[in-house]
Amino acid sequence: GENSIVLSSGANADLREADIDDGLVEMASGDILLLQLESPESVVRHAAHVAKRHGAKVVLNAAPAPTTIDGLLDDVDVLIVNEHEARSIGGAVGISGDDGASLVADLAAAFALTVVCTAGARGAYANVDEVVVHVAGIAVQAVDTTAAGDTFVGYLAAQLAKRPDSLL
After folding, report:
1. Is the Cβ–Cβ distance between 125 and 100 less than 8 Å?
2. How much is the pTM?
3. What is the set of active-site residues?
4. Chain-centre distance of CA 59, in angstroms?
5. What is the DSSP code string of 42-71?
6. Whole-angstrom Cα distance, residue 53 to residue 156?
7. Which of 35, 82, 100, 147 has its Cα between 20 and 30 A from that of 7?
């Protein structure tokens, strides 16, 4: 259940705030915007802000780990990270949790949002109603972990769209 991230920005590097404004013009309350950090962080911040202004819920998969935190999480409702990303974000604000559970609790308290932290073969941790919940991993014979994190994030976002109260 462990993997590495290789990033080739491609078209994501060309994304601009005007593209966000055009693309999110019909966003409304009850919608979910799912973001990741393969696009410029300033554009991600802008997209989160526009979505919140329209009443949408913002889910950020902080992958790859952000280079700065200032303002990045201001408009985020759900932060999804792996343990490496959680440690990176935590380190930027003085949090040094030893495991997924403590990282989730500390990040959730520091940023007043819901945090989901994947922990490879150990499963995932999330804060729900101020309690950290652990969901055990399922033992499988991994053949290819390409896009495993993206798949997890996509399924979680789909569940939130179906049942908005399930984590928020």
Report:
1. yes
2. 0.90
3. 150
4. 6
5. HHHHHHHHHHHHTT-EEEEE--SPPS--TT
6. 23
7. 100
